[in-house]
């Protein structure tokens, strides 16, 4: 019998610890496939953030380090500058990236660091109890916004990709999702492009991936995907935000 599907060599044998219905496992698989297909598993360094993916260093088969909360882009900067031949990427949630880590991320982008940042946006702080995040939608209920986020007082959700797309030294920004097979294929294409851009020395890339948090949202996995398709994509539209192509 012909074998047509195998576990990627970009991942270890360590089981995932994510909740049922979470897309982190899918995204890990995609990243592992990209590392394998580009033949850079042994030439890559991942930086784990603080959040649901805090132990992603156990899952990626490449070299990995753990950063303090929000500091992954600063760690990536140091690792890339001291190891310019390595492919360096961060893996961060929206709380880690867009709240405590926004300073590190936006200044790495401003300097045009030749690194890849992967942002998984599920519009909530997942690991720490389901609090409101910078990306929580208007009306969305969390443990710290039990009546729903309100524009008056709590402000509008941050559109991170659009913000980074305005920075002149940024090379590539795309927002994708991981809810459907077609979206998953598009996400893999985007991550692979971002990795290849770094290998080609084109500079800073950001891939934002819309995900769900069925536990934090208080929904079943299928309900959370339906809600995300109806609400998150309306506010966070999918597609390429910026693609500078070749270095100018």
Span of the ends, CA to CA: 51 Å
Q: How many strand units?
A: 7
CATH H level, superfamily name: Thiamin diphosphate (ThDP)-binding fold, Pyr/PP domains
Low-confidence regions? none
CATH architecture label: 3-Layer(aba) Sandwich
Major sheet details: 7 strands, mixed
Q: How helix-rich are the residues, as a percent range?
A: 25-40%
Number of domains: 1
Structural class: alpha/beta
Q: What is the CATH first-level class name?
A: Alpha Beta
Strand percentage, roughly? 15-25%
Radius of gyration: 17 Å
Quaternary structure annotation: single chain
Question: What this model shows, in words?
Answer:
- By secondary structure, the protein is α/β, with parallel strands linked by helices.
- The chain has a single domain (24-242), classed as Rossmann fold.
- 36% of the residues lie in helices and 17% in strands.
- A seven-stranded mixed β-sheet has the order 2-1-3-4-6-5-7, sandwiched between helices.
- Helix 7 links the parallel strand 5 and strand 6 (204-210).
- Helix 1 crosses helix 7.
- The longest helix is centred in the C-terminal third of the chain and has 19 residues, at 181-199.
- The N and C termini lie far apart (51 Å).
- The mean pLDDT is 94.
